[in-house]
Write a structure and sequence with these properties.
alpha/beta
């Protein structure tokens, strides 16, 4: 798979998964997730996928300041419905990184390591973004994304129109793709730790 080099420069997320440790899938259960993993999951790279990646990273860093975060150790609550807007995509990225799954998730072994029913939609008090709750100590944070400081290139709309034209040339399609990824690159490399873009609020 060939992809833009900046994917490898984006912040990585390291978690410890006790289930992976038990089953011998990873030494000490340590798993390093890269942005390309989220891209492969979603099938594309966009501000939503990149934003969800950064929100998951920020929430876990806040809840596990001494790191690494425990995969399967948090629940995630989103205010909107699963099929509303981009909630489904965001939820999938959070499931990848945190292990928190909806009702169809892993049901555990001997009463341990369950991942199902840890991702909830249509939770009114989850706030404008989403809420992540650490299951062992009860600490929670809310995390939201504000892309106001990461504007799309001015040329993006006309480039999109040209790329969608049935008679578009490979060069026109490539020009749109490059412009599209420039915003994603800016978000991941310049605003990963920007509190005005990735907003984390401690709830307790």
């Amino acid at each position: 798979m060939r992809y833009p080099p900046f994917f490898d420069e984006a912040p990585a997320i390291t978690v410890r998964d006790p289930l992976a440790d038990l089953l011998g899938a990873a030494d000490d259960g340590l798993i390093d997730y890269r942005y390309i993993d989220a891209v492969r999951l979603a099938g594309h790279s966009c501000p939503t996928v990149a934003g969800a990646w950064l929100m998951a990273r920020a929430a876990l860093r806040a809840l596990y300041p001494d790191g690494p975060a425990e995969r399967g150790g948090v629940s995630v609550e989103m205010a909107g419905a699963e099929d509303e807007g981009v909630n489904g995509v965001i939820g999938q990225v959070f499931t990848l990184v945190t292990g928190a799954a909806a009702a169809n998730g892993f049901h555990g072994i001997a009463g341990r390591f369950a991942r199902h029913s840890l991702l909830h939609f249509s939770t009114p008090d989850a706030g404008a973004g989403l809420r992540v709750h650490r299951r062992d100590n009860g600490k929670s944070v809310s995390v939201a994304l504000d892309l106001g400081d990461v504007p799309a290139p001015a040329s993006l709309r006309p480039l999109l129109g040209a790329a969608l034209d049935p008679q578009a040339t490979p060069e026109q399609r490539a020009a749109f793709g490059q412009a599209w990824q420039e915003r994603v690159k800016c978000l991941l490399l310049e605003h990963a730790d920007d509190p005005a873009v990735v907003r984390v609020t401690r709830l307790n």
